[in-house]
Amino acid sequence: MNSKFAMYILKRFGMAVLTIFLVIAITFFVMHAIPASPFSSEKAKSDETIAALEAKYGFDKPVPVQFLNYLKNIARGDFGLSTKWIGSTVIDLIKGGFAYSAKLGLCAALMAIVTGVILGALAALKRGKALDKIIQVITTALVSMPSFVIATLLLIIFALNLKWAPTMATQPGGMVLPALSLSLYPMAYVTRLERSAMLDVLGQDYIRTARAKGLKSSRVIFKHALKNAMGPVITYAGPMMAYILTGSMVVENIFSVPGLGRLFVNSMLRTDYMMIMGITIFLAVMIIVMNFLADVLYKVMDPRINLS
């Protein structure tokens, strides 16, 4: 690793840390700007009981003091206690939900990338032909449809009408439709990115030189063209994971997936401030880390990229 690459990584890492701090600060102060107490909506609680609960959770201290304490606790991996799921810590609830969300997100990401790269490469190799036009029409339609619309259609068609899949994710095979719902939009976007990148690479001089040397078409495509056309897809991997993680909030509720998305929605409905802050920060950190890794991997895959 040369010094320039090391400085690039340090710069990206510093920006990631700064972004995480800003997310924590904004999330914390926005939640504390809400005038009502998280316990004020509870029935049959006296003012003394509410005051005792606020003291237990540290809400009775000045907001700047609460923020400093919150930062110290996060540094130790402690996101506090849930105010609605009594006796449960925020981090334990997040871990339980993330086990489902990670499985769902990884399946959707793999489906999107693998299928998108294959379809994009095929569209580029068959440019202007029937297959290329069919792929472009399908991907254009999928890009214009949000994940919750796709999820609802898949649920009605394949689960309720055809009964090919269960309606709940906790049943055997129940993760197929949610993963498919989350993968179709990014798959369509990856297809379009890969097609454009492949067309650009196939027109480069080194591809013509490789073909002039008599190399097999398969070797030219897989060893030279496809590898160098993966840059835009790698760059999109970070935002894609952001889309999958945030899009899963609605999809998980549609298919009753006990993941982070469903937990976040329930936390909003139950005004669990600690859970809302914890999940928001956790998802933000995941997205920032994904973007950081994508930036580094992009440079590793294509050394020609100018580091700045």
Structural description of this entry:
By secondary structure, the chain is mainly α. The chain has 12 helices and no strands. The protein has helices spanning 3-32, 47-57, 63-75, 90-125, 130-143, 147-161, 176-202, 205-212, 217-228, 231-254, 260-269, 273-301. The chain is flat. It starts with a helix and ends in a 7-residue tail after the last helix. The relative contact order is 0.14. The mean pLDDT is 83.
Topology:
Layout: H1 3-32, H2 47-57, H3 63-75, H4 90-125, H5 130-143, H6 147-161, H7 176-202, H8 205-212, H9 217-228, H10 231-254, H11 260-269, H12 273-301
Largest sheet: none
What is the terminal-to-terminal distance? 16 Å
Average pLDDT score: 83
Order of helices and strands: HHHHHHHHHHHH
Poorly predicted regions are: none
Number of helices: 12
Shape: flat
What are the salient characteristics of this protein?
308 residues, mainly alpha, flat
Précis, in short:
The chain contains twelve helices and no strands.
